[in-house]
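Tutorial sheet, problem 5. The two components below are modelled jointly, 486 residues in total.
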Amino acid sequence: MTPFHGWEMPLYYTSILDEHKSVRTAVGLFDVSHMGQLFVTGPGAVEAVNELIVSDLAQTAVGRACYTMLLNQQGGILDDIIVFRVGETELLVVINCANRQKDVAWFQSHAAPPVQVGDHSAARSIIAIQGPQAAGLLGEIAGLRISALGRFDVMAVPGLGLETWVSRTGYTGSDGFEVFLPNRDAIELWRRLLERGQAFGVQPIGLGARDTLRLEAGLRLCGTDMDETTTPFEADLGWTVALGKASFIGKAALARQKAAGAGKRLCGFQLEQGPVPRQGCPLLIGERTIGTVTSGTFSLMLNKPIGLAYVERDVALPGTAVQVAIRAKSYPATIVKLPFWRTQTTAATAQPTGARA
Amino acid sequence: MTIPQELRYTKTHEWVRQESGEVRVGITAHAQEELRDVVFVELPAVGKTVKQGEPVAVVESVKAAFDIYAPVSGTITKANEALQTTPQLVNQDCYGQGWFFAIRPSQSEDVTALLPAEEYGKLIAAQAH
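Model answer (structure tokens):
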């Protein structure tokens, strides 16, 4: 167990790499109830939230979800969040637990009646079911209609309890679902998933593999790979930004940066072999420091060390040869396109059921 | 937890096996269990002179890197090159194929001053509480 922003969470149940493999080849269960759940409701809820995020919720229909960002006036990233449009004027906003109090205050200070902002984090849980067998397993419990959910779709599943939503989202790069539900139903669902999951090779997953999975999929960790000193363009998440929207907090700063060009950009890099790059390690070309590592790990699927780093924009190009300095030694590395690893649907569905038995 | 009787131990979780004229060094079952998932090992150069207690190798798990200390002063005579390509041997066989390096001690009394199995067992039991 390890302390994590006021929670005690398992770093691993068996081993980080074992758990990583389970998610990539079978199915893993994550208790991610530490994440915050806000409900923004009432007439004008969509418009109010739209003022706080870089994306345009006009593009997000009821039953859809949107990965987006909250910015400060300087365009710095306060948090990355997912907004689930669960009703016409009802939004479920899932936020990082480290930013919960800050985010809640931010939403509340920018919402006026009849828009209501409710922080339901303490009363609600989140269970993520991730991996090529996730649809099979959750389908047995929630009914076959969940397999009709597309990526970033969300639907209410009353069969799992009241006030329960299921989305086809996750933080692993593999196919999967997240279930948002009241605490009173969470333990029962977890038990059923573990029990029914035996035939699917289910494995509970700790924080360690959560980090290696997200990094291998090229997903940023807020607070580590981006923060209030970095913009969505610098974090290479410009695709989330709708500069065509009439207004949102941080828009002017982003428009200026778009015109001038960001000076640094978050990139992926990999080593053919060698030690694991860690946060703070410098990236170099020859003697010149061109960047700094924000996250690093060992990729099980590539069998190589990988990392994310902010680098000068002129060298932030896939194929560029660089060096990474680790414990005063320098190792050759290459800038690569993200994600490091991508699921192949045909290969994933070809995995035999219950292969771990 | 396996703690072979015939080995000597350090407080920093290295084991030492006396062989003819040299000692072989690795990390204990307790250490590899704490580390889990070893993904990289950095070994000392053969011929290097090392002092007791100085960091001479590095073992990395997915989560972090840890120093391996010289249990005795002397000269490095061997390094386990198999760990360069198969670092998981440290997890699979920590007292056998997962050894790190060998040292020719400059003072033989260094080895006898190391912890016997029973004392090392008490040490890790105490750390668990």
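Marking note: The mean pLDDT of chain B is 95. Full credit if you identified this.
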